[in-house]
Design brief:
Triger factor/SurA peptide-binding fold; 12 helices; four-stranded antiparallel sheet; Chitinase A, domain 3; alpha+beta; 2 domains; globular
Length: 318
């Protein structure tokens, strides 16, 4: 949510207080304070809390005990805002359809996490959001991330010889030249399982695979039906895994997948798995990511030297 300095954002909480509910009327009003000024823009406390706690429905005021962590988050937001201010001058075209799809995917995931539309809307209201204002915030964040990424990427140039040298460096360090971002659905199966148990597990796994092929979101199936309890809360997301850290059957199953594609069932000592490829990085992409981080750090330092930055929440001022 990008606001010009001088504006005071008054957020109307849609949930009434207990006394107001008894009276049947009235709404509580919350002043969304300014957390920081970054040149001619502001970051509000509401934005900061959403970023710091990572979700809606969290505490509505800053707590002294969490101030150091929140200050670090605020510093990161200031860096992103500085980068965005520069990037918006350089990147004029934004893929509206892609941004809209990203926003809708986030909203659907949040809605699913709360279990119902009503619970989702109540959580939004408790944080002072309407569904439309929440979507607007997500859209602005997605657009900011896009222009910053494009602006930084334009500053990075990598040649074949550099990729070759980086690949050799990775080999010397014993690191993977390729890594995979994977999600999984697991059907547990003991190594001592009987033929009947194996057949039942295979039947269940093939039914899940058919649902994936019919368009049921992979993350939904992972959340609702996977036997991997630890990964349920992350919709089956396993994060990034280097090829050296993958078991041979899993590597063989995922190495030829395209982005978003699901593998055939894979048998390991823990059971049957279906893997979905979220993203794959080669040595060139790993080097590009490394250079992007270096360029970002240098540019932020330069922008901070010439920026007007003020922290306006007393508990966060150093």
């Amino acid at each position: 949510m990008r606001l010009r300095v001088g504006l005071l954002l008054v957020v109307v909480l849609l949930s009434a207080t207990r006394g107001e509910a008894a009276a049947g009327s009235g709404r509580q009003r919350l002043l969304d304070r300014v957390a920081a000024r970054v040149n001619d823009e502001i970051i509000t406390e509401n934005e900061l809390l959403l970023a710091a706690f990572g979700d809606i429905g969290q505490a509505a005021t800053l707590l002294t005990g969490t101030a150091p962590d929140i200050r670090a988050r605020l510093d990161g937001m200031i860096d992103e805002r500085l980068l965005a201010q520069t990037a918006r001058e350089e990147v004029k075209e934004i893929p509206e359809e892609t941004i809209a799809n990203q926003v809708e995917a986030i909203v659907q995931a949040r809605r699913a996490a709360f279990g119902s539309e009503q619970a989702f809307l109540v959580a939004l209201e408790e944080r002072g959001w309407s569904l439309e204002s929440y979507k607007k915030h997500l859209r602005e964040q997605a657009e900011q991330a896009y222009v910053v990424h494009v602006a930084l990427a334009r500053r990075v140039r990598i040649g074949d010889e550099e990729v070759k040298a980086y690949s050799e460096e990775l080999r010397r360090r014993g690191e993977s030249l390729v890594r995979y971002h994977l999600c999984q659905i697991l059907v547990s199966l003991s190594s001592q399982a009987s033929p009947a148990e194996v057949a039942e597990a295979e039947k269940r796994m093939l039914a899940l695979l058919e649902q994936v092929r019919q368009g049921v979101p992979f993350e939904q199936l992972a959340r609702e039906q996977s036997d991997d309890k630890a990964a349920r809360s992350t919709d089956g997301d396993l994060g990034w895994i280097g090829e050296k850290d993958l078991q041979r059957p899993i590597l063989e199953a995922v190495r030829s997948l395209k982005k978003g594609q699901a593998s055939l069932p894979v048998r390991t000592e823990t059971g049957l798995h279906i893997f979905q490829l979220v993203r794959k990085q080669t040595a060139r992409e790993l080097l590009f990511e490394k250079r992007m981080a270096e360029v970002r750090k240098e540019l932020v330092a330069k922008l901070r030297r010439g920026a007007q930055i003020r922290i306006l929440l007393p508990q966060l001022a150093k």
